[in-house]
Amino acid sequence: xxxxxxxxxxxxxxxxxxxxxxxxxxxxxxxxxxxxxxxxxxxxxxxxxxxxxxxxxxxxxxxxxxxxxxxxxxxxxxxxxxxxxxxxxxxxxxxxxxxxxxxxxxxxxxxxxxxxxxxxxxxxxxxxxxxxxxxxxxxxxxxxxxxxxxxxxxxxxxxxxxxxxxxxxxxxxxxxxxxxxxxxxxxxxxxxxxxxxxxxxxxxxxxxxxxxxxxxxxxxxxxxxxxxxxxxxxxxxxxxxxxxxxxxxxxxxxxxxxxxxxxxxxxxxxxxxxxxxxxxxxxxxxxxxxxxxxxxxxxxxxxxxxxxxxxxxxxxxxxxxxxxxxxxxxxxxxxxxxxxxxxxxxxxxxxxxxxxxxxxxxxxxxxxxxxxxxxxxxxxx
Length: 381
Prior knowledge:
Layout: H1 3-30, H2 35-60, E1 66-68, H3 70-77, H4 84-101, H5 105-113, H6 116-140, H7 142-158, H8 163-177, H9 202-230, H10 237-251, E2 259-261, H11 264-268, H12 283-297, H13 299-307, H14 311-334, H15 340-352, H16 361-380
Antiparallel strand pairs: 1-2
């Protein structure tokens, strides 16, 4: 096993974990997850990524790297009034729909029929409020947050992939070094999975489960497949959707939201510097899986450290982590000229956070955008 493979897998996993773990914790808090359920969520999703990456890489002999759904976590974190069992029901639905997409042509065609601009606008509407909250964190704790922002901006000039990780590192050092962290609450329990029986709420399934499936497919799986093609590998689309969807469905019963194809972290594992022989590069997926097993087992200690941080630090980390995805979503929303107004409607309704009949804003934003797009399309005929 080449050292370059091991280092690439470690860097990819650490970037994926460190840059968005704060968002996963925000999602768990939004649905009222207990400390035990939050720890189970993180452990289960780490194991899901490890199993999926190892199975798909070994099965297809190409480097397949899975990640948790970052926009999905943002979508969950934006919800209000949803219990953890109801959220689990939505996670199960999203995983099942991803699995069905691998086998049901009508479903995959229906997803492909949604205009790219509207799908991107829904994602942008989900992400935008979190980026705004970063300003509140900076105002509340400027001594902690502003240095993190400066480090993020400077590191991003050289290596955007590790910019949030650098900000997190500074936040940890500053919080503990300056006495802002809550030392008395630190504890390191053993890793443990907690089964959570799902509850099937129609409003939550429509308002969270369906949008979670859509943002995972549109903003994670499709770019992930494109990343593989850009590096000269043919993505195993059907197998990847079936495996990631199936694993997501099972891990949801232990609190985890969806796993999917990685894009940015996958690129770290697919370059010529990983292994000069392309036929051997699939092994990095197995090493990557091993790193995620380690992160999962070590997650109680990591979560305890993060829980000790001031909320302003965590809020700033979430905002910084989502700036890149927000930029990509806004670009995608307004690139197609024919759907710009519909995309604007989708963005505004989704970002408003409005909930009607117990159904979340992401669903209504998508519905509003599609209605405007259909009306405009009919008017042109």
